[in-house]
Amino acid sequence: MATKQTFVVWGPYQTDTEMLSRRAAARTEHLAGLKQLGTQGFLKLGGPTSDPESGEAKGSMLIYEAESAAAVRGFLEKDPYWAGNVWDKEKLEIRLITLTIQ
Q1: Residue 7 domain flag
Q2: Is residue 5 part of a domain?
Q3: Which of 33, 42, 73, 93 suits a disulfide with 37, CB 3.0-4.6 Å?
Q4: Residue 102: which H helix or E strand, with range?
Q5: Inter-residue contact 7 to 69 (CB < 8 Å)
Q6: In the predicted model, what is the mean pLDDT of residues 31-55?
């Protein structure tokens, strides 16, 4: 079994005017899936982000523990925000974190 690593995901939202309605439609299923990944030990932390000045919704920040970036991408591609075109897939980032402080 491979050692789990820590990954941070930045999932910026699409910027079109219909994004908020697509997000609302997918949110319940999205949260249920994240809760399941948390229960399984893969998702450590996550939530929506917003602009500190305007309060405008900007994206999702998620922290996973998984064996690889490919495994994290697999979780993301099964998420309703992926299928519902809430996240901007072209700008989505998965980064490995080397923890030095916990």
Answers
A1: no
A2: no
A3: 42
A4: none
A5: yes
A6: 96
Rounded to the nearest 10°, the torsion over CA 79, 80, 82, 88 is: -120
Q: What is the pLDDT of residue 102?
A: 66
What value does the mean pLDDT take over residues 18-25? Answer: 96
> What is the average per-residue pLDDT within 4-20?
96
pTM of the model as a whole: 0.90
How many other CB atoms are there within 10 angstroms of residue 94's CB atom?
A: 19
30 and 85 Cβ atoms separated by less than 8 Å: no
In a 13 Å sphere around the CA of 20, the CA atoms on its Cβ side amount to: 5
Count the neighbouring beta carbons within 10 Å of the beta carbon of residue 102: 4
Is residue 37 included in any domain, yes or no? Answer: yes
